[in-house]
Specification:
This protein has 313 residues and is α/β, with parallel strands linked by helices. Helix content is 39%, strand content 17%. Bound molecules: uridine-diphosphate-N-acetylgalactosamine.
Length: 313
């Protein structure tokens, strides 16, 4: 993996991946393409002198074709990563998430990139009650966003089968960690809660708080990407990327209060429409093929996220 490029590299997950890539002895050149719509230059500030940062839009094929020249591995993280936004503006999200992914794959073939690793989503599983989620379950996309990510996975497999482009899709579960923006209406719950905690305020839990998620700290996601880029077994395949456990929202807030040594009971609001009740990954396939083992657990990840937030205030 000598020359690598991260689409969406100025975003929350992309910028963590860039940092991980810079630590790899076999990586010589790290490039980023980002349109800075939700990514921030600040996310790359202290590594900016070691990264080639390009402002560009994945809807523009010519931009990708030019940048992919000489690249060995592309990590495709760029997307409008929001279920509600995809319902409000399905055309824009389709263009970025589906046409953009197609452009990435086409440019990768045209420029003889060896491998593309793609940020897919647990949204593909929809509301099916069976737990934990396994990759061989029938997908049940319930939003334009879920369809976009699923279409991406299918394009990946097809580009592997039709053109020999090595593709790997990673279905991320609920990712959290430093640099996740708490201020957007589409923010992940962990970043919202952490922000409230540091402001000395209680959060609002939608519903009874007994809904659960498989929260995964962003550095575990970085590890999964690095393994997916190197594994000989991975091309053409799809892997869940969670911790394999689940935590309820009530437990999340209890743990945050404990860690911070405060007592701020959360208020409860109505259920959020369309919410999935429980989500949990079966990660045995990623363990077997990639050697993936999430090394940073929920509480440790949360502690690191809070430390980072405190330091950045
Ligand atoms: C995650 C992904 C989303 C999509 C979806 C598929 C994130 C940030 N989002 O959505 O992209 O893949 O899974 O199912 O990873 N909540 C509160 N209070 C708040 C905010 C949220 O109670 O202030 C609840 C919310 O109602 C839900 C849970 O927290 O029950 C998680 O919400 P989320 O928006 O962080 O993530 P999720 O699982 O809906």
């Amino acid at each position: 993996m000598r020359n690598v490029l991260v689409t969406g590299g100025a975003g929350f997950i992309g910028s963590a991946l860039v940092r991980g890539l810079l630590e790899q002895p076999d990586v010589r050149r790290v490039m980023v393409v980002d349109d800075f719509s939700t990514g921030h230059e600040d996310n790359l500030r202290e590594v900016a002198d070691r990264v080639e940062i390009h402002r560009g839009d994945i809807r523009n094929y010519a931009t990708l074709e030019r940048l992919f020249d000489g690249v060995h591995v592309v990590f495709h993280e760029a997307a409008i990563a929001s279920v509600p936004k995809s319902i409000e503006d399905p055309r824009l999200c389709h263009e970025v998430n589906v046409d953009g992914t197609f452009n990435v794959l086409q440019a990768a073939v045209d420029q003889k990139v060896r491998r593309v690793v793609f940020a897919a989503s647990a949204a593909a599983y929809g509301n099916a009650p069976e737990l934990p989620k396994r990759e061989d379950m029938l997908p049940d996309p319930r939003s334009p966003y879920a369809v976009h990510k699923l279409a991406g996975e299918m394009y990946l497999r097809t580009f592997w089968e039709s053109y020999g482009l090595e593709t790997v899709a990673l279905r991320y579960f609920n990712v959290f960690g430093p640099r996740q923006d708490p201020k957007s209406p589409y923010s992940g719950v962990l970043s919202i809660f952490a922000d409230r905690l540091l402001a000395g305020k209680a959060p609002t839990i939608h519903g009874d708080g007994e809904q659960s998620r498989d929260f995964i700290f962003v550095e575990n996601i970085v590890q999964a990407n690095l393994l997916a880029a190197r594994s000989e077994k991975a091309p053409g395949r799809l892997y869940n990327c969670g911790c394999g456990g689940r935590v309820t929202l009530n437990q999340v807030w209890d743990a945050m209060q404990r860690v911070a040594g405060v007592n701020l009971p959360a208020s409860h609001g109505p259920d959020r429409p369309g919410d999935v009740r429980h989500s949990q990954a079966d990660i045995s396939l990623a363990r077997r093929d990639l050697g993936f083992e999430p090394s940073i657990g929920f509480e440790q990840g949360m502690q690191r996220t809070l430390d980072w937030l405190r330091a950045s205030k």
